[in-house]
Fold:
Amino acid sequence: MKISASILGCDFSKMGQEVKKVEDSKVDIIHLDVMDGHFVPNISFGSAVIKSLREYTNLPFEVHLMISDPRKYLKDFVNAGADTIVFHMEIEDDILEIIREIKKYGKKVGLAVNPETDIEKIFPYVEYLDLVIIMTVHPGFGGQSFMKDQIYKVRKLKDKIMEINKKGLEIEFDGGVNLDTIKFAKEVDVDICVSGSFLFNSKNTSQTVKLLKS
Ligand code: DX5
Ligand code: ZN
Structure:
């Protein structure tokens, strides 16, 4: 299982060092939560911040866009150094066109599904995706509790993946992951878990990453 460190949980006054710290602690991915105060009721940071963090690590940057109009800003996030660009299924735009545009930039593409959204909604796009994020909290804030009632979505998605014989698609849980809840991810064999507040609040991040992975 890979661990993706959500920068939303770090000390914003020293983001660069925080990124270095989790890299040294052997996380696999840096997860960057972009919020526009419209798609979700909170504002976080944008492409300029991500660009400035790029020089602190060689780990892959997974940019999680919780914004209403991702299409408008794709180029900015590509230029900021994103390796994977994830946007939400629930936006009002042509999903396939955005997927194509992200691929045109040579980046990996992911779709995220909110807790209240049926997983079946993403089935028409599965063949084009590198990543699916199953939200295990309502997006917008770190430090919320893991929603167990989202776990069933993994099996449904895996059935679909089998059915169309799709290779290389990763499944990720985002929200509320800690040492207790990661066992649910293990049970259904999720590929990646995001960890924000739990990781950054822990005294020994290396030890925490080791424990999460085991
Ligand atoms: C929620 C974000 C998550 C969040 C995870 O809107 O998408 O990535 O930062 O934080 P924790 O691990 O604190 O739930
Ligand atoms: Zn996220």
About this structure: The mean pLDDT is 98. Residues 6, 31, 33, 64, 174, 194 surround zinc ion (ligand 2) (CB under 6 Å). The longest strand covers residues 29-35. The longest helix spans residues 152-163.
